[in-house]
Fold this sequence. Notes:
Layout: H1 7-12, H2 18-30, H3 32-39, E1 53-56, E2 61-64, E3 69-70, H4 72-83, E4 88-93, E5 100-104, H5 105-121, E6 129-133, H6 138-150, E7 153-156, H7 163-173, E8 177-181, E9 184-186, E10 189-191, H8 193-201, E11 209-213, E12 227-229, H9 230-235, E13 246-247, E14 251-257, E15 265-270, H10 272-285, E16 293-296, H11 303-315, E17 319-323, H12 334-342, E18 346-349, H13 351-359, H14 363-366, E19 375-378, H15 385-395, E20 402-404, E21 439-442, E22 454-460, E23 470-471, H16 475-482, E24 490-498, E25 504-509, E26 513-516, E27 519-522, H17 523-531, E28 536-546, E29 550-559, H18 568-582, E30 591-594, H19 608-615, H20 631-647
Parallel strand pairs: 4-17, 6-7, 6-8, 7-14, 8-11, 11-12, 16-17, 16-18, 18-19, 19-20, 29-30
Antiparallel strand pairs: 1-2, 3-13, 4-5, 9-10, 14-15, 15-23, 21-22, 22-24, 24-25, 26-27, 28-29
Helix pairs in contact: 2-3, 4-5, 4-6, 4-11, 5-6, 7-8, 10-11
The chain binds 5'-O-[(S)-butoxy(hydroxy)phosphoryl]adenosine (WT7).
5'-O-[(S)-butoxy(hydroxy)phosphoryl]adenosine binds near residues 379, 381 and 515.
Amino acid sequence: MMYQPTDGFRWTARLQSLEDYQLLYRRSIEKPEEFWGEMAQALTWFHPPDTILDADLDLADFSWFGGGRLNACYNAVDRHVKTRPGKPAIIWAKNEPGEYEIITWRDLKHNVGRVANVLKAHGVRKGDRVCIYLPMVPELAYTMLACARIGAVHSVVFAGFSAGSLRERILDSGARVLVTANEGPRGAKRVQTKAITDEAVEGLSQVQSVLVVRRTETHVPMQAGRDWWLDQEMSKHRGTCPVEWMAAEDPLFILYTSGSTGKPKGVMHTTGGYLVYAVTTHRYVFDLQPDDVHFGTADMGCITGHTYVLYAPLTNGTTTVLFESLPTYPDAGRLWQVVDDLKATVLFTVPTALRVLIREGDAYVKKSSRKSLRLLASAGEPINPEVWRWYHDVVGEGRCPVVDNWWQTETGGVLIAPLPGAIPCKPGSATLPFFGIEPVLVDDEGRVLEANGASGNLCIARTWPGQARTVWGNHQHFIDTYYSRFPRLYFTGDGCRRDEDGYYWITGRVDDVLNVSGIRLGTAELESALVAHDAVAESAVVGFPHEIKGTGVCAFVTLKPEYQDTSPEQMEGALKKQVRHVIGPIATPDQVRIVSGLPKTPSGTILRRMLRKIASGETQDLGDTSTLAEPTVLDELLKQQLQMESRR
Ligand code: WT7
C-alpha cells in the first residue's frame, strides 16, 4: 500500500509533488556541478570554490569545491550568533527525566571558543587528531566544534566501546589529546569512562593530555601531568578564538566503523563536501522549517549523531536536542515525554528502539500529546513494515510522514529516502534516491541490472559531496573495500531490491558485517576477540534474525583439548564476557555454541552460509552439503539446533 503525503503536511513542505522531486533529481544528475554549486551557497565561505568537482573513479580520488575555504564551526556557530544569539542551539536532555539545559548560540560560541583555546594550550594544532570518548554531554558538542574551529580532526569513539577498542582507535588515529568524563550516567547505569580511558592509554606515551569532563560529583584518580579537569582548564581561557580557514578537502573528522575484514577503519570526511551534503540532505529529507526542534536519539559515536544531531541542524540554524539517556529510561514513555517537554517537531530514531517500545504497549505513547511532532524518521537498519505502521499510526496518529532513510558512515548523509512532501511511501522501503545519487544494482558477476524488479548488490555510480574520501592512513584499503569488487562503482555492502515502481528495498548486508541494533560489527573482529581467549581453538560468527536487535550474534566455537571438559554453561559465560571485554557490551554474543568441529570444505574454508542457515533455524534448506570435508560435523550442528528449538 502507498502512503501519500497528507495535505496538511504537503501545504508547508519544501517539495510538494513527485514532479517537483523528479525535476530537481534530473537536474542534479544531468548538471551535477551546477546543482551542487548552488547548494554550496547555503554555507558561508571565506573564499568561494573555484571548481566544483574533480573526480577519478579508477583511483577513487574525489575532490569537491576545490579552491574553496571555509570553517565548519564558523558555519555552525558564529554566523548564527549574529542573527539569533538567544535562540537555543542545543537543548541538553539529561539522563534523569525532566532535567534540561538550554545552550543558546551565544553560550555555544563562548564555550566552544574556550575549549578551542584549551586544546591549543595542550598543543593541538591544525591537522592534529583529537580523540573524544564522552557520554552525550554538552562538552562533547563543544569539543567537536572546537576541533573544527582550529582545524583539528576529531575522532569520536562511542562510550560503549571497551578499553581495547578505544586504544586501537587512539593508536590508529595518532591522537595525542583525549577528552573523556569522570563517568557517564546512562539509564540506571554509570559508564566508567575515565577508568576505561585509564586502561586504554596505560603505557601509551603517545597520549600527552587527558581532559576530563566533570559530569558527576564522583571523584576519579587523576594522573598528575597527564589528566586535567576540563572545567578548570576552561576557566583559564577566554571564549574568543579565531577560526582556521580550511581548504574544502581538509579533513573534518574520522569515524571508525567495522568492515568485513580486519580492524575497524577510520572513515575520513572532509570539511566542504561533508558540510554541503549534510545541510542539503537535512533541508530536504527532514523538510527543514525555521522553528524546528530536531530530536535525534543517535549517539554521537555514530555518523547519525555527527550529521543530524550536530553539524546539519546547527549549520542550518535549527535547535537540536542532545539526548543523554535511553528510550526506555525510566520507562517506555521517555521519548514522548521529551517530545512534549521540548515541543520537538522532528523525531529521528532507530528501528531497534521502536521494536522495544512497541512491546511495552501503546499506553505509554497515548498518555503523551505529541502535538508538536511533524515528521518521524528512522535509519540504521531495515524497518519492519509493521514497525513502520506503528510509528506512523500510533506515534504520528497518521499526521506525520515516516522518513525511512538509508545511508552509511561512509556516505556522510542520507542517500535514499522519501522526501516527505513529495514521495509516497511504502512501509519498509527507503523509496527513491536523493539528489545527485545514482544507485546501481549489480549481480555477483558485476553485470548491471537495468530493469526494475531486480535484486542485487547495491552500488553507487558516481561521487557525491558527502562521500568519505579515504580510510585514515590507508587509501589502498579504501580502494580495496569500496572500489575493487565492482570497478568504478562504490560498493555499499548492502543487498537491495528495486521494485516495479523503481523503489529501493534494502535487504541487509551481503558482506561479513553484522548490523546489531543499528551498530556495525565485523564478524572477523568478533572472531578475533573469541580466539584471543585461551580456551578457544577456532570460531565462526554469523548473524541471525533477532526480534529486537534486527540481527543477533551467534558464535560457533571449538575448544582446545585441555578445555574440553569445562561445562558448556561455564564456557559460554566466559566467552560472552570475553567479547564484552574486548569489543564492548554491544558485541556480546546472543548465543555461544560449543561444537567439536566447524563445517569446512576440503581446502579448509568455513562454510559460513551453512552456519548462517543453521543459526537462523532454516535447517531444511542448507544448500549443497556435498562439499563438506567431514559430514558428521553437520549432524552435530543440526542436533544442537533441534535441542535449542525444543527448549524454547
Ligand atoms: C548500514 C550502515 C543510517 C546511518 C547510520 C548507520 C544499514 C542504514 C538503513 C535503512 C535498511 C539501513 C545498512 C548500511 N542501514 N540505514 N534505512 N534501511 N538498512 O551507519 O553504522 O555505517 O551502518 O546500516 O546495512 O550499510 P553504519
